[in-house]
Design goal:
- Among the domains are: 438 residues, Rossmann fold; 134 residues, Immunoglobulins (Immunoglobulin-like), CATH 2.60.40.
- The protein has a six-stranded mixed β-sheet with strand order 2-3-4-5-7-10.
- The longest helix is centred in the first third of the chain and has 18 residues.
- With 871 residues, it is α/β, with parallel strands linked by helices.
- The protein binds 2-acetamido-2-deoxy-beta-D-glucopyranose (10 copies).
- The site of one 2-acetamido-2-deoxy-beta-D-glucopyranose (NAG) has 7 residues, from loops.
- One of its GO terms (cellular component) is extracellular region.
């Protein structure tokens, strides 16, 4: 093995890396008040961490883990909890190993739409696109594809799906990684994705827990404090926690904490969130990992319920320092972190590894996320690293291109189509405008982590990206089908373009955003500079085309809501399609729709308002250059359509809107009662089952002494101490207020993964018949919204999406009956006093609406009454 200096790399990387946190954060004070006022929000203590393993679904995995962990040394245990350091292995993060038990360095890798920074992978459509399909089968299929590719590359934990951000802030940089601005849409899509991913043996990771709704000022660093998302208990439960609960119920193996604070306590060491809500109330049995460099304190995070530090580094990355690794060894030897807590961390990690069968023939990493070369440094973050083969170029794409195309196509949302301008015919004379129709002029994947807006927009930027293995641009695909297309791949309208009577102008525009560590055209992740407008003066391009041509079709690739009012009412703007973020099959998906091979069947996973000021002011981006941003969720439950409906604000297009080339009729609505809601609250939960027990004695210090003749890599993170025998117990530690090691009885809202299982009792099921009443084949989505009665005693949004189903392709005249099940939880509000979910007894007063958007309602069922067709 050759050695190669990677010092230059490090200089670059250190600049890229954000230097987090000050030493003050090592103190257990979870509510530092020295920056500025906390607006009265603080997070109550919740100790100790509930041990994992008390549910039957996980008992076999926990038994296996128990027999292994009970034989582990302190060094082996600590190894599995801590990353080996930033750029210290092939994956974006990996733990140390416990090879005596066959447990390798556990590889964690981005991201939610494909395997990042490698080749031979698929670039799937982004989450927002998947949400827009409203297609549960495609959601699952994408999960299977992602999981299969992760497994093929030797990735143990794939870092997705994303349900936080939920999409509270339309300008929020990462809303496109998640599935849309509604908790049930997020929850259903996450559940399908997780089940698909984990069916392949890959461990899914639901993130970011929680309140990570803005990119700017998200991190605690040496110069600033991460913002605090101040969220009241009911809003947390009914909006932001809802998809996490469903993910836990789906059996997700791991959860990633968010960078920001909630109620002025950093998410990676917020005991109420991790110990209380995630592990006790939601009964989460897997392990909790930090976001990268989101670890800000050693003992404090261990006590608050964190199980794994990634990538392992401490306040200043890449210098071989950690809050855990050798420091965790020390804090166990000195008696500050109870052995029981460390045993639980490791048991959770090892049990999850067994649960998904990763002990049996699971591949080791075959790739390097650090380079595309075959050979390179094994540990690029080391000052000097052994050098060797790092990429085996395993092609894991399989036939996933078909899934990509199906999702990208079925997400395309037709907002407007006057005079049946669409679909086009292959011989229609077309003039195609916009850089968004073409390739990146600098070359495929030429922008690191997609940090630029050049050519067709296939995904946003940041860690949630994957390299495109190839790209079918709209230009490629239109050029291949149309016998009469002329391309002007530029965002400037050409002055000399020839206009003929029969021409259709097809104008491609986009709006991008991404993660905070890259700023693109003045947008530091969030759409700070661009606002909610099209990029590159896209509105002007549309207006110029609309002035010259009598038929204009606009195609929009966008990360989220985009304002259309500057031009959408112009007479010549005949048709508008939102194609979301399609991934590698962008062009094929759009021509499948433009030329009518398929009718569009996507629906908006957010509302599009007339103007940005229609949103509640509290969802604007927040900045405070010196000091800590307090971001208080004063709008409560009223985000996106919930807000617009409450305030009687007419939107340009409402949540769920999406036209087809055909029309549908919803008829014969019917409702049947399944499990009666005899009581407002669910029946009492079962007590927790037993969890693995271990000796609680502090192990011999020699277990973390450096092994003899150990080939130590500089800056690599190890569990070992130079002089472990010198660590003594008996010192006093300033434990946080409320700290205890006496286990709490489980909270009444808990009882199984996701919460009290009775919350998922099906209370009612609703059937509707959907008929294709037009003259082209197409697919319809039935969206089910609940309206809860005032008898619950709390103000509740007038409509809340709770279910949806999509038909198969229906031929003209053909019908399909769709069944949607409504659970007790779907009809409940979070009772902040009782700390449980409260439903209207017997469903009294509940109305269930079925429609094609939140305002295009076609049928209504009243519980105890009849179902009828709406006007
Ligand atoms: C945050 O503070 C609000 C207001 O006091 C409270 O309702 C909520 O339960 C707190 N949540 C957490 C996780 O601390
Ligand atoms: C762990 O040790 C016990 C006895 O100490 C032994 O019976 C068991 O087989 C060991 N398990 C493993 C996985 O090594
Ligand atoms: C801890 O993990 C490292 C690899 O990350 C390995 O070199 C070392 O041997 C492991 N220690 C033990 C005790 O297994
Ligand atoms: C857990 O067990 C319950 C009851 O056996 C089952 O319905 C559920 O699907 C299981 N969940 C997972 C994730 O395996
Ligand atoms: C034990 O070690 C940890 C990690 O270094 C340290 O934070 C803590 O203060 C120590 N406890 C005592 C009582 O010295
Ligand atoms: C997907 O790729 C395969 C080859 O890997 C090709 O045969 C097939 O046509 C592609 N499918 C689509 C829908 O592009
Ligand atoms: C071009 O069209 C042909 C025939 O429809 C098809 O087989 C081929 O895959 C298309 N190529 C692209 C790049 O769309
Ligand atoms: C426009 O279409 C009509 C009818 O299809 C045709 O007669 C006419 O020649 C076309 N005009 C141009 C400029 O192509
Ligand atoms: C919205 O309209 C309803 C019904 O017309 C009315 O009762 C309500 O006061 C209006 N709300 C607002 C905020 O204007
Ligand atoms: C060394 C190694 O981990 N090889 C794996 C690479 O990927 C193939 C295909 O998934 C596996 O079979 C190998 O075990």
């Amino acid at each position: 093995m050759a050695f190669r200096s990677t010092f230059l790399n490090i200089l670059v990387l250190t600049q890229l890396a954000i230097l987090p946190t000050s030493a003050a954060d090592q103190s257990p004070d979870l509510n530092p008040r020295f920056w500025n006022e906390d607006e009265g929000f603080s997070s109550p203590p919740y100790y100790p961490t509930p041990n994992g393993g008390w549910l039957p679904n996980w008992s076999e995995a926990y038994e296996k883990a128990h027999s292994v962990v009970s034989n582990m040394t302190l060094a082996e245990k600590v190894n599995l909890t801590t990353g080996t350091g930033f750029f210290m292995g092939p994956c974006v993060g990996q733990t140390g190993s416990a090879l005596r038990f066959g447990i390798p360095n556990i590889c964690l890798m981005d991201g939610p739409l494909g395997i990042r920074n490698t080749e031979g992978n698929t670039a799937f459509p982004a989450g927002i696109t998947v949400g827009a399909t409203f297609d549960k089968d495609l959601m699952y299929e994408r999960g299977v594809g992602l999981g299969g590719e992760a497994r093929g590359k030797g990735v143990n934990v794939l870092l997705g799906p994303v349900v936080g951000p939920l999409g509270r802030k339309p300008r929020g940089g990462r809303i496109w990684e998640a599935f849309g601005v509604d908790p049930s849409l997020q929850a259903i899509a996450a559940e399908r994705t997780i089940k698909g991913m984990q069916s392949t043996g890959t461990i899914a990771n639901i993130k970011h827990f929680i309140g990570n709704e803005q990119e700017m000022h998200r991190m605690t660093t040496v110069v600033t404090k991460g913002y605090s998302s101040n969220i009241d208990d009911r809003t947390l439960h009914e909006l932001y926690l809802w998809p996490f609960a469903e993910a836990v119920r789906a059996g997700v193996g791991s959860v990633m904490t968010a960078y920001n604070d909630v109620n002025n306590s950093v998410c990676s060491q917020n005991s109420m969130l991790i110990n209380g809500i995630l592990k006790d109330e939601l009964g989460f049995q897997g392990f909790v990992v930090t976001d990268w460099l989101g670890h800000v304190g050693g003992v404090s995070s261990a006590l608050a319920g964190l199980d794994m530090s990634m990538p392992g580094d401490g306040a200043v990355p890449l210098f071989g320092n950690s809050y855990w690794a050798y420091e965790l060894s020390r804090s166990v030897l000195n008696g500050t972190v109870p052995m029981e807590r460390l045993n639980d961390m490791v048991t959770r990690i090892v049990a999850t590894w067994y649960k998904f069968g990763q002990d049996k023939d699971y591949p080791l990493p075959n790739f390097s996320s650090n380079t595309l070369d075959e050979k390179g440094p094994l540990y690029p973050g080391a000052l000097f690293s052994p050098y060797g083969v790092v990429n085996k170029f395993v092609n894991v794409q399989d036939n996933h291109n078909a899934t990509v195309r199906a999702i990208a196509r079925d997400a395309i949302t037709l907002l407007k189509n006057e005079d049946n301008t669409l679909p086009l015919k292959p011989d229609d004379p077309l003039k195609v405008f916009g850089e968004d129709a073409g390739p990146n002029p600098d070359g495929l994947n030429s922008c690191k982590d997609m940090g630029c807006d050049k050519g067709v927009l296939t995904m946003g930027w940041g860690s949630g990206t994957a390299r495109l293995p190839y790209l079918i641009t709209p230009q490629d695909a239109i050029g291949n089908i149309s016998s009469n297309a002329e391309f002007h791949i530029s965002d400037d309208f050409p002055s000399d373009v020839e206009v003929n009577d029969n021409d259709t102008a097809v104008v491609f525009i986009n709006a991008d955003s991404g993660e905070n560590y890259i700023t693109v055209e003045g947008n530091p992740g969030d759409r700070k500079e661009a606002g909610l407008k099209a990029w590159h003066e896209g509105d002007d391009l549309v207006k110029a085309a609309a002035e010259k041509f009598s038929k204009v079709v606009v195609v929009i690739h966008t990360v989220g809501p985009i304002l259309l009012d500057e031009w959408i009412d112009q007479k010549s703007v005949k048709a508008v399609l939102v194609a979301h973020l399609p991934g590698q099959e962008a062009g094929n998906a759009v021509t499948d729709i433009l030329f009518g091979d398929y009718s569009p069947s996507g629906h908006l996973p957010y509302a599009i308002p007339h103007k940005e000021s229609d949103y509640p002011e509290s969802v604007n981006l927040k900045e405070q250059p010196l000091g800590k941003v307090q971001d208080t969720f004063t709008e409560g439950l009223y985000i996106d359509y919930r807000h617009f409906i409450k305030e009687n604000i007419t939107t340009r297009y409402q949540f769920g809107h999406g036209l087809s080339y055909t029309t549908f009729k919803i008829s014969e609505p019917s409702l049947s009662e399944e499990t009666p809601l005899n009581d407002a609250y669910p029946p009492p939960r079962k007590p927790k089952g037993p969890t693995p027990t271990y000796a609680s004695t502090i192990p011999p210090a020699s277990e973390v002494a450096w092994p003899e003749h150990f080939n130590r890599i500089w800056r690599y993170l190890y569990p070992y101490l130079d002089n472990p025998e010198a660590v003594t117990t008996g010192g006093s530690y300033p434990y946080p207020t409320g700290y205890t090691t006496d286990p709490k009885p489980g909270p009444r809202a808990g009882g199984a993964e996701g919460g009290n299982p009775a919350l998922w009792d099906v209370a009612f099921s609703v059937k509707v018949k959907v008929t294709n009443t037009g003259n082209r084949p197409g697919r319809a989505v039935a969206q089910l919204y609940v309206e809860l009665p005032s008898s619950l005693g709390v103000d509740t949004p007038a409509r809340q999406l709770r279910q949806f189903e999509k038909t198969k392709i229906l031929d003209p005249g053909e019908s399909e009956t769709l069944t949607m099940k409504i659970t007790r939880k779907d009809l409940s509000v979070w009772d902040v006093v009782v700390q449980d979910w409260k439903a209207p007894v017997k469903g009294e007063g509940v109305k269930i609406w079925i429609g094609e958007s939140v305002v295009d309602l076609r049928a209504v069922c009243e519980i105890g009454g009849k179902c009828s067709l709406a006007e």
